[in-house]
Amino acid sequence: MQASLLRRAGRAGRAWLIYRLDQLLTYPPLVQVAVLLLLTAILISAFAVLALAVHPGDAQFPGASEALWWSVTHFLDGGTMAGDPIRLRVLALGATGTGILALSLLTAALASKMGERITDMRSGLNPVVERGHVLCLGYAPNVALVARELARSGQRCTLVVLAPEDKDRIDAALRPARQVPGHRLRTVVRTGDPRNEQALLRVAAPSARAVIVTPPATLSDDDSVQWTLSTLLAMRRVAETGFEGRVIVEARHTEARELLSLAGEPGVAGEGQLAMDIIAADEVVASILAASTRQDGIYFVLRHLLAFDGCEFYIEPLPDSLVGQSFDEVHARVHDAILVGVRTEAGEMILCPAPASPRKLARGDRLILLASGFGRWRLGSELPSSQLPAHSAVPDPTPQHVSIVGFNSTLPHLLRELSAILPTGSRVQVVAGENSPRALPMVEDLSQKESAIQLSCDTRPAAPLMHRGQHEMCRADAVVILGNEDPHDENGDASALAMLLRLRHGQKVSGHRARRVVTEVRDPRSALHIAPRRGDCVVSSGVVAMLLAQVVLDPDVAPVYRELLSPRGVAVRLRPRRVYVSAGSATFDQVLANARARGEIALGFYPDPRSHGQAQARQRLEEGDVELGEDAWLNPPWDTRVPDTEDAQVVVLAHERDTPS
């Protein structure tokens, strides 16, 4: 009977011990460590008391402190029991064995805690402790391009990316940005859903100076809008705790702007206003495609202005010494930079003011400068007096023939842009092939609204027509090849490049060649193995990433780029050298003075007359950038000689209404 009771008690005690150990393992590792340390202290004290009780008056234990020290040393170091007398060995063996067991459990608890931390770091679940950082919500290939531009800016910046995708994959994509020479960019990747408020707090969203919202590339157009809206609503909820930054939203299509803007409107989704800029990718790409059809080199100049290539737009305070002076007076004295406009205290943006404007600069105005960095300009001697050449007139624009091959969401915006900028009497022909049922109503609808140019749609497949060189697009002034925008098609750029090859072959067969060919791709590296030709350019969504980076670092420049990319207003143009200076030796300061006399602002030269070695091209490739074409030289020193080569042109800002094609 007693044996049965003992067995039952033993099983109950064993079950109790296992249950308590199981409960202990459910606690956080720090709690486990604290419990084990407490048990260890109790066991050490128990063996000290046992030693005093079993061996009272022993010379080795003259007092409680000595007994406690004996217990501690045997717990921590089993070797100390080797010198114990025989009478103490049993007790020493028990203390050492218990110590080994306790320390093993303590080590396991610490290892568990360390393993948990390592797992958190690898999975991107640790909180971010930052202020004034740039936060990117969502991941798409453009994020790596934004990181590259932030690195090239040379500004100290921390980029935090929050996305549900694999952390290691995003880290690998951001690695080229950390290879930019002289960069001051830190990148942090965290795993989580940007639509979750707790995830936003984990990446210190309220403390960010700028938040980029970019939908994953794998989502459909409709799903991307819903994802972006949910993210903005979550961000707005978090922003109510004191967000002082700005949200920059990348939308695939212009039509989403109206809905997404409601998330920031006061009194709709919340009480206050959420400062927000919405950049529509199709609108930006369409503007650059349209501008690229008008002149050779326009794309490369715009790309240079959008990228951080050592010459960007900066908005800086007006010094007190310049208050009361005219724009032309200040423009003539600015060295190491080019004054292109003024932002008034009311927020009005005035680019390329009319010459001899009576308006005086007022306190509170800010200068819009093209410079190599913020504050990198000075006041000096004035420009020379203007001396326009005898034959400086620019011929009137002639009607253009533009062929558009393919169909995607950029087409309607491209047609509207071309309708606004092409001279009266121009023709635009869309060769949509199998997408003709979608393109034809769009072309017919716009034809009824636009009478200045002729719009038409060719329903025949473009590929065989171009390959045989029988289509009139081989003799067009400009050909635009639209890319495939399907995010699930990994070889989407191949269709646009295939059309480019067919067009080149058709031009070779027919003996005719379009003056300009503009090809749209998602990734500019797709065209790396196709030899560039003069008049050809490859436009990619990378320009959207460049614009995002500019607005992130200085939201005030957004209206400047919006103006330059709009079909009306101030535009970037290329003019022949003879328009500004006569034949012979001349310097850039004379070009600046003569351009201002024409109501324009000279920015530099195209193409860049300086030679760049293979080292720079290789560095660009390692950074994930491929430039297929010639570059521009903007903001050269005043004493720079004006190139006198046959293809030398001057880059200027001019009002579109006065700008011929």
SSE arrangement:
Blueprint lengths: L1 H25 L2 H26 L9 H13 L12 H35 L10 E4 L3 H12 L4 E7 L3 H8 L10 E7 L5 H6 L7 E4 L7 H19 L6 E6 L5 H5 L14 E5 H12 L5 H9 L5 E6 L9 H5 L2 E2 L1 E7 L5 E3 L14 E6 L6 E2 L21 E5 L5 H11 L5 E5 L4 H14 L4 E5 L3 H7 L9 E4 L10 H19 L5 E6 L14 E5 L1 H12 L4 H8 L4 E7 L11 H10 L3 E6 L7 H9 L10 E2 L14 E7 L6
Parallel strand pairs: 1-2, 1-4, 2-3, 4-5, 5-6, 13-14, 13-16, 14-15, 16-17, 17-18
Antiparallel strand pairs: 7-11, 8-12, 9-10, 9-11, 19-22, 20-21, 20-22
Helix pairs in contact: 2-3, 2-4, 3-4, 5-17, 10-13, 13-14, 15-16
Number of domains: 4
Alpha-beta content class:
alpha/beta
Using the coordinates above, name the CATH class of the largest domain: Alpha Beta
Radius of gyration: 35 Å
| Main sheet makeup | 6 strands, parallel
Architecture (CATH level 2) name of the largest domain: 3-Layer(aba) Sandwich
Overall pLDDT confidence: 83
CATH third-level topology of the largest domain: Rossmann fold
Beta-strand percent range: 15-25%
Write up what this structure looks like.
The chain has 661 residues and is α/β, with parallel strands linked by helices. The chain folds into four domains: 12-123, Helix Hairpins; 134-274, NAD(P)-binding Rossmann-like Domain (Rossmann fold, 3-Layer(aba) Sandwich), CATH 3.40.50.720; 310-379, Regulator of K+ conductance, C-terminal domain (Alpha-Beta Plaits), CATH 3.30.70; 400-542, NAD(P)-binding Rossmann-like Domain (Rossmann fold), CATH 3.40.50.720. It contains 20 helices and 22 strands. α5 crosses α17 (542-553) and α10 packs across α13. The termini are far apart. Keywords: Ion channel, Ion transport, Membrane, Transmembrane, Transmembrane helix, Transport. This is CASTOR/POLLUX/SYM8 ion channel conserved domain-containing protein. Residues 283-374 form the CASTOR/POLLUX/SYM8 ion channel conserved domain. It is found in: Endomembrane system. It is a multi-pass membrane protein.
